[in-house]
Records
---
Amino acid sequence: MADVDTATEVVIPYTPRSQQQAIHDALLTPTPGGITVVVAVCHRRMGKTVAGVNHPILAALDCPLERPQFGIIGPTYTQEKRNAWEYLKHYAMAVPGCKVNETELSVRFPEQNDSLVRIFGADRPASLRGLYLDGAVLDEFQDHPPNFLTEIIIPLMADRLKWLLILGTPNGRNQFYKAVQKCATERGWTLIEFKASQTGIVPPDVLDAARSVMTEDEYQQEFECSFEASVKGAIWAREMAAAWEEGRVTHVPYDPEYPVDTDWDLGVGDQTAIWFTQSRHTGDVHVIDYYESSGVGLDHYARVLQEKRYVYGTHWAPHDIEQREFTSGRTRLESARRLGINFAVVPRVKALEDRIHAARMIFPRCRFDAEKCREGLDALASYKRDYNTRIKEHVATPVHDWASHAADAFGGLAIRHYNPKAKPEAMARAALKAAQRDSDPFRWQPVRVGRGGY
């Protein structure tokens, strides 16, 4: 960039590839309505992070506003520090007067309107609240929390944000997939896709070597940008594939002849997930609905139950609902009863693998409504084991991310169904009786039963 007043030329040691240049050009294209959103689906080793680091630097040098700020946001603060911080310092320090802050992972250009480029983590949303951004990069977006874009970033757009770059590599039909789908319907959203077979960046012999040691799903996902391939380390990949192939993901209507049971995973700051099921005398489980939300109280979910107007049987909650809240001194079990939700508690299972196994056992008995359970199905397909980068293997522990809440709720559903020693009806009666015995009878309010009740 050339400064007309001082005749000083700033040269950044970055020569973009044609693919990286396509990203920059798309972000610089004016969009009716003011905000430009570019979603770039990139194969591994394409150079997306380097492009994602350089665009905020270039934007900071050219921005006419006073004290502009730009963010590079990864799935976690630690991960983005590892992936992007050295790149950011390397390219930014070519700018005269650049000031590097190692503590807050930021670079400032005092001679260019005192502009700032800073690294953030989506796992620390509080660090973004109250800030303004003139441009933002969401790096490795497939690993971000599912509501991060809508709850954190979109509100930042309302004031100053002029462009947003969403970068990632497919890993199932998660929030990155949804962002790709938005490009077909949202004004100002542009999709760019880079497959390894088309870019020529990775040499053919390297691709052949990768293909020889990877599964076909892994290769298609990492290098050919396939959202259809199974998620790496997916715990229920075969069960989910079988459900689709056997036609058990279809239209499953609500039948008023059967009560609707609900299975919950309760969160406060993160998601609460609810599965709605109807059990048949044949042993089949009709999964007719799914709901999730975050950052709201139990009263919100009580309204959701009422608005769905099902006739309910038993509401099942995990055992941690019996823990007392610090603020009120009551358990969430007691708080729920005040709202008319009479929870039974799912039998505690110490080993996580037992819950995962129980889910495997009941999958063949489940029929899922494809439309109403879409978000839940995406989560079940994306529930995966963690990857140990040191030994380069997936480990037994599942990743705690956006998919784990739906998976935990489904695991509770599985536990109560996969119990050869007890019938579901007997389990429900026993669990309700135990929960009522352990609570304060003077504060308990009975559940309302009937069409439209909860």
---
Amino acid sequence: MNKRKKQIQENLIEDKQYLVEEAVKLMQSFPKLKFKESIDIAIKLGINPQKSDQNMRGAISLPSGSGKPCRVAVFVEGELAKKALDAGADMVGMVDLVDSIKKGEIDYDVVIATPDTMKLVSPLGKQLGPKGLMPNPKEGTVTKDVIKAVEKAKAGQIRYKSDKNGIIHGRIGDISYSENEIKDNIETLLLALKKTKPASAKGIFIKDLSISSTMGPGLQLDISSLNF
């Protein structure tokens, strides 16, 4: 165990469920690294991942953003392409954008398409799928209102998807965020999940919740202290 990990372990309380304020202050007290660590969340849901109707995915705009710059590519042309660029898109195109993606030139965090351009985009599943970039209506990335989608992505919208264990992972800020900013982001995300709880999911829905910095341990949160 290196010196940093040892210092961190000395400050942890075994089996403690932290208030968000306590967890953030603790993470900020850890020995600093040469880069700004993200703060990530892991939410264990009371769903059956084997049932397709209980798999969860979507997008939510966090009140304080995610703390990560977002590069956006949009499949549009003509006047709409100009409007998308004005809204903050980093790249717009059609066949030219398809060609660049096929070459592996995928320097984007979000890819947006209109319903009528999906015939161009669908064959890119091999390139975009593994990176989680394939446009999807549930995430708001297949839409007629691409301008609004670009603005949301640039403003700190995050996308989430439950994994094979029924856990949602995501970035909710960085180590420079205040306790209130992190708490607001967490409660906003939890409320969005609660509103979209699958009808067939029974019992406790939010079962476990923890946050961690990039190079830090997971800190379990006291769910009862959160408002959602």
